Write a sequence for this structure.
């Protein structure tokens, strides 16, 4: 399967009323699942894990709940853009809040601009890539602090 075939399958699934679609060919498997409410649920890349002092989290008292971080990862390989256009302000920056669903980056692959959205709300702790960098699927782009 190549990227064009995958994008065509995603588009066909989004235009259909199917709840689940599995496609297998030549050792590749693509599974698409529609989220409750009817929108296509793209897989969230990343994991929530306890923050460590190396992440710059403040010290907490014994009764405080630990802070957690979440890495927003590239959904596919391509060129990452951290602003909507050259010379424009970035989508977000360290210290700023990001709302669930907010565009935080764009990954360009095969002349298609793919928006990367925050899957949950949080505060941007770090931007882990430079705009214009080539990234592989799954590479961390930003780190959010979540409550």
């Amino acid at each position: 399967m190549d990227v064009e075939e995958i994008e065509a399958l995603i588009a066909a699934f989004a235009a259909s009323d199917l709840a689940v679609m599995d496609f297998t060919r030549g050792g590749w498997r693509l599974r698409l699942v529609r989220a409750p409410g009817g929108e296509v649920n793209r897989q969230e890349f990343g994991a929530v894990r306890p923050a460590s002092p190396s992440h710059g989290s403040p010290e907490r008292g014994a009764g405080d709940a630990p802070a957690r971080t979440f890495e927003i990862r590239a959904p596919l390989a391509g060129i990452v853009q951290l602003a909507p256009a050259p010379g424009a302000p970035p989508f977000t920056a360290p210290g700023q809040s990001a709302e669930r669903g907010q565009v935080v980056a764009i990954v360009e692959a095969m002349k298609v601009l793919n928006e990367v959205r925050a899957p949950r709300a949080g505060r941007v702790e770090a931007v882990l890539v430079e705009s214009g960098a080539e990234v592989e699927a799954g590479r961390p782009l930003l780190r959010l602090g979540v409550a």
Summary: Residues 99 and 121 are 4 Å apart (CA to CA). The two ends are 39 Å apart (CA to CA).
